[in-house]
């Protein structure tokens, strides 16, 4: 029987390149050959032990694209397939990591519009290899697609570099969507065309947020980061002004207020995933403004806040936890049509054998999106 290699995170800080038997494809499933898989900050945080209740051992990697090499007879009747026509061998796909919701748990019954809350959902890249057939993550040569998969056909001729950013773009779009509601933009509440926005963290997710803001009509986009290369990329993707996170805070605050009528941005989106950045966000956002927290999908620790600030500023604070899988449709549309140099966000590609080296590169100077190409 044929084998597939995959990197197994057996525990925090422990990776093993293992081989798995490629299973016979069930009638309601499919097998996909991985073309590329991006490394998310979540992957690195999990590697360092910041993901609570991680289902070790597991093959991580949830930002993957690939090509169908085998498909069961009833797969098209079970999976959510978008992008035109039924699935067939040779189709190039972006796969939303979360499964179709169960429809039975409390959240599915009471909040069906929030499918990411489903307590029975499975997630590609965060699924134990103890669950057969084990190949559930993108840091592998092949991935097995179960019957509750969301599959999105990639537009013809889209580059690997754009297509592999479908998941990060969905995350960025969701963060911006959270800024819209509740609120009436024309009354100075919430986000809308003409608003000022600051993005803390210009890593791959922050850059997708900036691209989404540019596409939705923000009048002024500010970006803060510690790395010069990321600030330069932020400007290429539409940031109007950048803030060096290494500068003393009071100087940064003066810079931001000088650009926002002395009051601060209408919206601040925290995408750095560093607890101290949340302190900055509270200080930067104007009174009556909105703060979106999208950077902390894992738990890297705590930071001190003053509840008085939230009360005094009369703030709306929203978490942004993943996204409805259908947002992959919007993400692919933005990636296909955006004139921004989104391909350039991918700065490094590594073969599957060099995943440990690639993980070390994530978050360093000069590194944007790091991609594994089996």
The number of helical runs is 12
CATH superfamily of the largest domain: Medium-chain alcohol dehydrogenases, catalytic domain
Unreliable spans are: none
User: Percentage of helical residues?
Assistant: 25-40%
Radius of gyration: 21 Å
Keywords, separated by commas or semicolons:
single chain; 374 residues; alpha/beta; Quinone Oxidoreductase, Chain A, domain 1; Rossmann fold; eight-stranded mixed β-sheet; 16 strands; 27% helix; 23% strand; globular
Word description of this protein:
By secondary structure, the protein is α/β, with parallel strands linked by helices. The protein folds into two domains: 3-154 and 341-372, Quinone Oxidoreductase, Chain A, domain 1 (Alpha-Beta Complex); 171-319, NAD(P)-binding Rossmann-like Domain (Rossmann fold), CATH 3.40.50. The protein has helices at 41-47, 75-78, 106-110, 160-163, 166-180, 204-215, 228-236, 249-258, 275-284, 307-313, 327-337, 355-361; strands at 3-11, 14-21, 30-38, 63-71, 80-82, 92-96, 142-145, 150-153, 196-200, 220-225, 241-244, 267-270, 290-293, 316-319, 346-350, 369-372. Helix 7 links the parallel strand 10 (220-225) and strand 11. Helix 5 packs across helix 6.
């Amino acid at each position: 029987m044929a084998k597939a290699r995959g990197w197994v995170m057996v525990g925090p800080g422990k990776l093993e390149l293992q081989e798995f038997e490629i299973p016979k494809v069930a009638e309601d499933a499919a097998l996909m050959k991985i073309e590329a898989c991006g490394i998310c900050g979540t992957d690195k945080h999990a590697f360092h032990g910041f993901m609570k209740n991680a289902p070790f051992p597991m093959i991580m990697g949830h930002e993957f694209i690939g090509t169908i090499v085998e498909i069961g007879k009833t797969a098209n009747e079970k999976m959510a397939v978008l992008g035109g026509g039924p699935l067939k061998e040779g189709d190039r796909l972006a796969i939303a990591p979360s499964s179709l919701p169960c429809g039975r748990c409390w959240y599915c019954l009471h909040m069906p519009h929030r499918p990411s809350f489903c307590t029975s959902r499975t997630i590609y890249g965060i699924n134990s290899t103890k669950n057969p057939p084990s190949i559930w993550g993108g840091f592998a040569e092949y991935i097995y697609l179960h019957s509750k998969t969301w599959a999105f056909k990639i537009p013809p001729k889209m580059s690997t570099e754009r297509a592999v950013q479908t998941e990060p773009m969905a995350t960025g779009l969701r963060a911006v969507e959270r800024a819209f509601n509740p609120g009436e933009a024309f009354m100075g509440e919430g986000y809308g065309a003409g608003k000022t926005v600051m993005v803390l963290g210009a890593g791959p997710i922050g850059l997708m947020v900036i691209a989404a803001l540019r596409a939705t009509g923000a009048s002024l986009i500010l970006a803060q980061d510690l790395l010069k290369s990321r600030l330069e990329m932020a400007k290429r993707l539409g940031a109007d002004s950048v803030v060096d996170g290494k500068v003393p805070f009071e100087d940064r605050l003066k810079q931001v207020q000088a650009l926002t009528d002395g009051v601060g941005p209408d919206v601040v989106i925290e995408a750095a995933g560093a607890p101290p950045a949340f302190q900055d966000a509270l200080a930067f956002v104007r009174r009556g403004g909105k703060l979106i927290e999208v950077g902390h999908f894992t738990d890297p620790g705590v930071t001190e806040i003053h509840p008085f600030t939230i009360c005094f500023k009369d703030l709306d604070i929203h978490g942004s936890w993943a996204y409805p899988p259908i947002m992959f449709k919007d993400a692919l549309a933005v990636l296909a049509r955006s004139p921004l140099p989104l391909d350039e966000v991918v700065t490094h590609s590594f073969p599957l054998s060099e995943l440990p080296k690639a993980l070390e590169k994530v978050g360093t100077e000069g590194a944007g999106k790091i991609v594994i190409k089996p």
